[in-house]
Amino acid sequence: MCVLSDLDLEPAADGVLLTGVPPVTVSWTQLRRALAGHDPEQAVGRARLTDWLLARRWCADAGREAVELALRPVGLPVDHVTHPGLDWVQERVMGDALDLGLGAVGLDPADPDRVVLLPASVADAVGIDHDVVWQRVRADLERLGGLAVERARQDPKGVLRPFGDCDAVTLLGARSLRTALAQQDDGLGAAVVPMLRRGWTRLAQIDPAFGPAAAAATPAEQRGFARPLLLTADELTLVPEGGRPERIVLRDRAVDAPWDRDVLYR
Fold it and tell me: Which of 50, 89, 161, 223 is buried most, with the most CB atoms less than 10 Å from its CB?
C-alpha cells in the first residue's frame, strides 16, 4: 500500500502508524476488521484496506467538526465490491437489495467532490456518533429525493441522475423518490440502474437487454444493480434471476405490413 497507494505509514509491533499531523495509530485488530474477511494479498482486500486507511487519515486531518459538516448519505447494493461491511449500514431498505450508510465529501485532496465512504470504526475514531448524525443525513436524503423526482419526470426516458452529492443508487434510498416512481406505475414501479451514477425509470423506452449488458460493461467499483429493480414506497428488490432478455428483440419476425399485428421491433 505504501508503494501502490502512496500511503505514509510505518509498521510496528501492535499495528501501523499513519504519519502526519496528528499521527494516527491503527491496531492490527482494526485492520483485520477493515478487511471484513477478504484476503489482504488479493486486489479486493488491498483496495478495502487502502480505502479504510485513507478515510482514517483524511478524517484525522479534517477534524471531527469538519467531518460532521461534510457528512452525506451513501447507498450501495448489498453485494457491492466497495461495501464497507455490516457495521457501516445505518439502514437496509426493505427488499434486501440496497444498504444506506455514511459518507463525507471534501476529504479526498485529489478529488474534493468525491463522497468518501465512512466506516463505523472510522467515525468512532474521530468521535462521531453515527446513530445520532444519521437522522440529519437521512432527512437530507429525503429532501434530495423529492427534488430528483421532478427532474426525472421531465425526462422522456425517466433518467435518474446524481442530485446534490447523491448518486442515482443513493437516491433510490429516499422514500420520497420511491413513492413517486411507484405512483406513476399504479403502485409498483420499475427501474434499471446498472451504474452508480445513472438509472432509467421508464423501461418501455429502453431495450430489455440494456440493463444487464450495461452493468456487465461497467467497472465493478462503479457498478450499480446487475438486474432490473421493482419498487414500492417501502420496498426495493431485484427481479429474480433467469430469463433471456436479449431474445425479446429477436422473437418477432419482420413483417411487410407491421400494422397487421403488434411488434415491438421491426
Answer: 223
